[in-house]
Each structure stands twice: as C-alpha cells, then as structure tokens.
Amino acid sequence: MAQGRQRDSRKEQQWRRWIVQWQQSGLSVRAFCTLHDLAQQSFYAWRRAIQQRDAAASTFVPVQIVPDEPSSNRFEVVLAGGRILRVPPGFDHAALRQLLAVLEEVQPC
C-alpha cells in the first residue's frame, strides 16, 4: 500500500468489506484482526486510506444564489417572544398597525 502504486480495486473492496464487518461485529480491532488473520497495522492503514479517499470523493451540490431585494423599502419587526414580522415594500400602514396590535395583545392565562 505504498504511495505511488496503482490501486488494486479488488484489494480495496475487500478491505472495505472487512472494515464494515468489523464495525458491525462490536469487536476490538485487535480481536477482529486476530479472528480474520489480518495485520493490525494494515487494518489501520487501510481504514485511514479509505476514509481519506471517501472524503476526497465527496461531491458538491449545485446552488443558485438569488440576490436579496433592496432592503431600503423592506424591514423586519421583532416581536415579544422572538417572533419576526417581515414587512414587504408597499405595505398598508393601517393594516400593519392593526396586525401589530393583535399580535402584541397579552393573552389571559
């Protein structure tokens, strides 16, 4: 498993199977390696190599960035209890006053 050698996919797949079997077995690495006649040093080296390969092979998910609307005509009101009311541009002032009054009413116990 020295650096620079070409990968042997069959060997890697076998080590992947052994690592999964070890994870499911509940045995220590030492006990599992003894049971399967594996060198602990090889087990640790392959486990590390496979983890590194899997991390390097992680994929990216495409995203689309949508610009925010200009904030000059838009704002947020933080209400009691941490509730947030987002007010869009062109809101009805009277309706907003009425909504705030209802939301801020103290509820009887």
Walkthrough of the structure:
The termini are far apart. 49% of the residues lie in helices and 7% in strands. The mean pLDDT is 81. It is mainly alpha-helical and 109 residues long. The chain has a two-stranded antiparallel sheet with strand order 1-2.
Keyword list:
109 residues, mainly alpha, 2 domains, two-stranded antiparallel ribbon, 4 helices, elongated
The coarse overall form would be: elongated
Using the CA coordinates, give the radius of gyration: 30 Å
The biggest sheet, with number of strands, parallel, antiparallel or mixed sense and barrel status, is:
2 strands, antiparallel
Number of domains: 2
SSE string, helices as H and strands as E:
HHHEEH
Give the total of beta strands: 2
Arrangement of strands in the largest sheet? 1-2
Fraction of residues in helices? 40-55%
Q: What is the SS-derived class? A: mainly alpha
Query: Whole-number average pLDDT?
Result: 81
Task: Outline the low-pLDDT stretches.
Answer: none
Straight-line distance between termini: 70 Å
Number of helical runs?
4
**Which band does the percent of strand residues land in?**
5-15%
